[in-house]
Amino acid sequence: MKKFKIEIIKKEKSNLKLKPNLKDYEKTAKSWDWKKAEKVLDWFSGHKINAAYNAIDRHGEGEHKNKVALYWLGEDGTKKEFTFWEMQNLSNQFANILKKYGVRRGERVFLFLPRVPELYFGFLGILKTGAIAGTMFQAFGPEGVKDRLENSQARFLVTTTEMVKRVYKVKKDLPHLEKIFLTDVVFPVPGVPLIIEFRGREPLIPGRRRKESSRI
Fold it and tell me: Which of 194, 198, 197 lies closest to 211 in space, CA to CA?
């Protein structure tokens, strides 16, 4: 099993550019009022709320649209920044792809990804479809994957070409799983994942040119 490097980053209060918005948890907890908190959020008719809209879209449509919403640091040192506007558009794109391939409100869609940007805007995209987003730890082996997908009867999974190999090891135990979205294969449209039907043998994806959706 791969060992991850642990690095503890300590920050002194004197070095913070902005003052913390929660200085004293105990004091805040005692005076907390949910009615006041609700006024900060945007609600839809019927007193319904969309977490993705409140977390990203309302900022992406306002004065903070160019403010960084996500700072991402890869294991190899790669750094990326995504503004609220970019996160809004990427999650919208992801939601549209899911709906195009049959994801419905109340559906279970699982994410089996390392901590890459697609994990975050993919999660938001699932919420925007009205589906239920499920996440799986990237270190899960075939049995861990099987338990969660089998119990949830999920029809859709979002993962990578490397991690999908663990899914195929328990294929016979996943009769409900139909489609897999591979985020690290972007043929033929940049930013659009490859979609494969979960049938037959495991696909030989690297080095092969496939249509956006293919039956295997």
Answer: 194
95-214 CATH pick, 3.40.50.980, 1.25.40.10, 2.30.290.10, 3.10.20.880? 3.40.50.980
Domain parsing of the chain, residue ranges: 95-214
Residue 105 contacts residue 130 (beta carbons within 8 Å): yes
How far is Cα 110 from Cα 180, in angstroms, rounded to an integer? Answer: 10
Q: What is the pLDDT of residue 190?
A: 45
Nearest to 93 by CA among 133, 67, 121: 121
**Contact by Cβ (8 Å): 109, 126:** yes
d(CA 110, CA 150): 11
User: How many other CB atoms are found less than 10 A from the CB of residue 41?
Assistant: 12
Task: Tell me the C-alpha distance between 122 and 116, whole Å.
Answer: 10
Beta bridge pairs of residue 80: 72
Beta-bridged to residue 158, according to DSSP, are 111, 181
Identify the CA nearest to 95 among candidates 57, 70, 123, 72: 123
Q: Quick one: tokens of 149? A: 């997908």
> What tokens appear for 161 in the block?
């070409």
Q: Are 191 and 91 in contact (CB under 8 A)?
A: no
Residues of the chain scoring pLDDT < 50? 187-192, 199-216
Global model pTM greater than 0.70:
yes
C-beta contacts of 60-66 below 8 A and 24+ residues apart: 60/84, 60/85, 60/87, 60/88, 60/89, 61/88
